[in-house]
Amino acid sequence: MNANPILKGKGVEILGKIKVFKAGLLTLVQDQGRNGYQQYGVPVSGVMDNFAYRIANILVGNHEEAAVIEATLVGPGIEFLDEGVIAITGGNLSPEVNGKPIPMGKSVFVKSGDRLDFKAIKAGCRSYIAFAGGIDVPAIMGSKSTYTRGNIGGYEGRGLKVGDVITLASPHKPLKELVGKWIQQELYSYTNTVEVRVVAGPQEDAFTQEGIATFYNTEYTVTNECDRMGYRLSGKGIQHKEGSDIISDGIAMGAIQVPGHGMPIIMMADRQTTGGYTKIANVITVDFPKIAQAKPGDKIIFKKVAVEEAHSLLKEVEEKIAQYKRQSIGREVIKTREFHLKINGKAYDVMVDEIKS
């Protein structure tokens, strides 16, 4: 019996393990990404849905940037070789433990020998599986993220396959203190038609007024050519003034390139570091998850917003995530009070939660 002493409150530093018995369609170890190396031609990679990823880690008591498993469309099968606590967020791929459904967005205790599996897709596209303690694989250039095209990071630089045994790091708290945490409301609801907000791209002036109007008034369809590198869309073509080629420049997450054929391509986590096509717009940060959770056949409508609004929307989401952390998710908050303080001439907003004991 592989009993985890941490569950019994002894605080023993041990490592757990999991074993893959079903690979899934694309199952990768990911974290916040390999930031700071684009100038050397190294893609950022990392999770596609950053907010679902962070919440999964919060639920199991990890640091927000701990490595998780990202499962796309068809989930993996995982056997637990030791006791642990897991949480699954993001797209709902119908998770089950030992054949019984488990809830999304809640920390769940698993015993040695338990098996996690997934069934049909109910919503979204990508699930995030966080393990108390996080995944213990080597960090490459400061990140445990998998970049499969370069065979970098994660578990041997590739997707997980049957027979892989992965080590988990020690939880930060006894497991019994982590079980039963939940989120009362998802940050996003995943639908088959999404409105995606964007800001103007650096080459917006390379398009005709008619082309710009087409971009914002067309319902585009996600094609089968969509992956972690980018999403190709189909719909009405976008007209350039002269041509689509530019001197290559940097590509940000969510940049929307429009090559000569006029169809937009949304660049995602595994995007190349530079590109030579005009960029009509850029998806705002808070709407990255809408793209990450879109499947082939889903519809996308673009809406232009000001940079200031994009900043305000991001602040709102970050405040929600901070609130989840403050409330420790599973504790019942009786009352939240907000105070406006001024100390030494500086203004501070302070929120105090009264938690049921």
List keywords for this structure.
nucleotide-binding, 3 domains, 4 helices, 12% helix, mainly beta, 357 residues, single chain, disordered N terminus, 7-stranded mixed barrel, 22 strands, Cyclophilin
At a glance:
Pfam families: CT_A_B (PF02626). With 357 residues, this protein is mainly beta.
Helical content stands at 10-25%
Structural class: mainly beta
Q: How would you sum up the global shape?
A: globular
Strand content: 25-35%
Total count of helical runs of at least 4 residues:
4
* Helix-strand pattern: EEHEEEEEEEEEEHEEEEEEEHEHEE
Low-confidence stretches: 1-13
Pfam families: CT_A_B (PF02626)
Protein name: Biotin-dependent carboxylase uncharacterized domain-containing protein
Keywords: ATP-binding, Hydrolase, Nucleotide-binding
Domain Carboxyltransferase: 39-320
What report would you give on this structure?
The chain is mainly beta and 357 residues long. The chain has 3 domains: 5-177, no CATH class; 193-308, Cyclophilin-like (Cyclophilin, Beta Barrel); 309-355, no CATH class. It has 4 helices and 22 strands. It has helices spanning 50-59, 209-217, 288-292, 307-326; strands spanning 16-22, 26-30, 68-72, 77-80, 84-92, 95-97, 100-101, 108-110, 115-118, 123-131, 165-168, 193-200, 220-226, 230-234, 245-250, 255-257, 265-267, 274-277, 279-283, 299-304, 333-343, 346-355. The strands form 5 sheets. A 7-stranded mixed beta barrel has the order 12-19-16-17-14-13-20. A 6-stranded antiparallel beta sheet has the order 7-6-9-4-1-11, with no helix packed on it. A 5-stranded antiparallel beta sheet has the order 2-3-10-5-8. A hairpin with a 2-residue loop joins strand 21 and strand 22 (346-355). Mean pLDDT is 90; it is low at 1-13.
